[in-house]
Amino acid sequence: MIYLDNCATTKPRQEVVEExxxxxxxxxxxxxxxxxxGLKAEKVREEARKNLAQLINVLPSEIYFTSGGTExxxxxxxxxxxxxxxxxxxxxxxxxxxxxxDKFLSYRDFGYEVxxxxxxFDGKVDFNELKREVDGNTALVALAHVNNEIGTIQDIxxxxxxxxxxxxxxxxxxxxxxxxxxIKLNLKDLGVDSYSVSSHKIYGPxxxxxxxxxxxxxxxxxxxxGGQEKNLRSGTENMPGLAGFGKACQxxxxxxxxxxxxxxxxxxxxxxxxxxxxxxYKINSPLCxxxxxxxxxxxxxxxxxxxxxxEEYGIYISTASACSSNGVHRSHVLExxxxxxxxxxxxIRICFSKDISKNDIDVFLExxxxxxxxxxxxxxx
Length: 381
Hints:
The chain is 41% helix and 14% strand. It is α/β, with parallel strands linked by helices. It has two domains: 2-9 and 256-380, Aspartate Aminotransferase, domain 1 (Alpha-Beta Complex), CATH 3.90.1150; 14-251, Aspartate Aminotransferase, domain 2, CATH 3.40.640. The strands form three sheets. The chain has a seven-stranded mixed sheet with strand order 2-8-7-6-5-3-4, sandwiched between helices. Helix 4 links the parallel strand 3 (89-93) and strand 4.
């Protein structure tokens, strides 16, 4: 099997699996219980909090565990909008993940002015437009650090500077799901108010994530109940998931440079050799994008047909975000960067990982060449 859909999810590390199994079989207590067995689980939870905090350079007390990136985004957006109720304008971009894009759309029904910033052909947000749009009525600006479809990396530090200069009371939330473990993160340096992350994008288990919330900021909760996570996210914690997430963060801190170098080489090798196998294509990912993502439009083909043809050889890719691939609509991200209909139709997304080798790339390119030839032959008829 050659798995190239690592933006959708990653294969958990063996050490992570062992931590998850250990919590399920042995240390299964509720961390809120007062007895020593519960205290043992609580220590695991706090160790996970510390490991994530170290990975993104924040305080452990600023980490709030959730079920994943989507919930973290919803908690942040809902919280900041409700906290800044007197302001009726919120800003995001035209290329956001559905958990931000659709959430922002929903606020139109409540009388909010919702601004979707334009992006250039590389998916970069128009900061001049941002400067014009942020005003005294702006409650929130929210963007992804790394785009999940084309890999664009936004200049978050500059974004925060622009927003806070125009209105210090405007909150800045960043979706960091595709950034965690993929680019070096120092949230203190970026200056964001909140930042969402997910475990299963960094070789951890699904169903675990977190929200960073800057010290001194409090927001209303979406979920009311037992008061877990300092009342921000009530509900008994997913301890097997948190144990695995914590282990994944620990290893990511230790191996970041080594694995980053490997993936950069794999992406470069793929791009260098692609032209030897395929013609009439377009790379949609910008030059300085995430090393883990390549968006590729192959003209005269259909991305979905390529996907299903490759899976017959045990090769797995995607056409767009896995969180929205069940729909029949075109990618709003590809529309925003001005791809024409035929380019959108022929787009696939290739996402690398620490486990991919140059030999895997060779096999993938050989099969891709074969599949593309077959599809083009059929589409000519």
